Amino acid sequence: MNTSQPLTMQDKPRLTQTAPLKRAKVPSPRRIAQRHRMVMAVKYLLPATAALLLTMLAIWPEIDREVDAARVTYRRLTATASSGTRLTGATYRGVDEQNRPYTVTAHAAEQVDQERINLAQPKADATLQNGNWLMVQSKKGVYLQHLGMLDMTGDVTLYRDDGTVMTSQTASLNMHHGAVSSSDKVSVEGPFGTLDASHGFTLLDRGNIMQFHGPSRMVLNAARSSGTTQAKTAP
């Protein structure tokens, strides 16, 4: 007797569908070249970075010393700058007791205190009411602005518009009174001739009156100009 049972729907074998296998994507030649360049760059970059780090470790103490020195220099410069105000191309203007203008200029000026100003290559010039002018220059100077006093030293040279030139080593200018004086030897050249005075000079009224002190030697030109300037020697 056959005892086998008929197959039902549940007993039928099931067929399953598997997903197709994906093929690995082959990189393009361009991609391969990029990877090769990256590998080569890393190959050389890592040793170079290591060498740079070793070099920095070796020279770092020297760099640290240089930075400290720069800080010290900066502090010194700051302290010097705070001690006084420095100006380049300084110009000071004023008027004398007769309300005539004058100007004091300098290549550089340092404000030492409220009264004193140290000048480098100072120049002082004034113009008379008749249009004549007088200019004095030197290597160094000390200007007391409120008093109108200017002490000049080093190759002092005085010019007048009539061609007179005076040279000395020192000169004191009273800008308010329009006077210039010196106790050092002075040499003068002008339309009248030449003059040397061993004990200095005094100029009044902005150079219209000139006095020379001590033993003097004058050489007059053959044709003397007939100006109004008065020049005389004093003992």
Account of the protein in words:
There is one protein chain. The protein has 235 residues and is of the alpha+beta class. The protein folds into two domains: 31-79; 87-218, Lipopolysaccharide (LPS) transport protein A like domain (lipopolysaccharide transport protein A fold, Sandwich). The chain has one helix and 15 strands, in the order H-E-E-E-E-E-E-E-E-E-E-E-E-E-E-E. A six-stranded antiparallel β-barrel has the order 2-3-6-7-5-4. A hairpin with a 2-residue loop joins strand 10 and strand 11. The longest helix has 55 residues, at 29-83. The chain is rod-shaped. The relative contact order is 0.08. Residues 69-82 and 225-230 have low confidence and may be disordered. This is LPS export ABC transporter periplasmic protein LptC. Keywords: Membrane, Transmembrane, Transmembrane helix.
Helix/strand layout:
Blueprint: H1 29-83, E1 85-95, E2 101-111, E3 116-120, E4 123-127, E5 133-137, E6 140-144, E7 149-160, E8 165-174, E9 179-182, E10 186-190, E11 193-197, E12 201-204, E13 209-213, E14 216-220, E15 230-234
Parallel strand pairs: 13-15
Antiparallel strand pairs: 1-2, 2-3, 2-4, 3-6, 4-5, 5-7, 6-7, 7-8, 8-9, 8-10, 9-12, 10-11, 11-14, 12-13
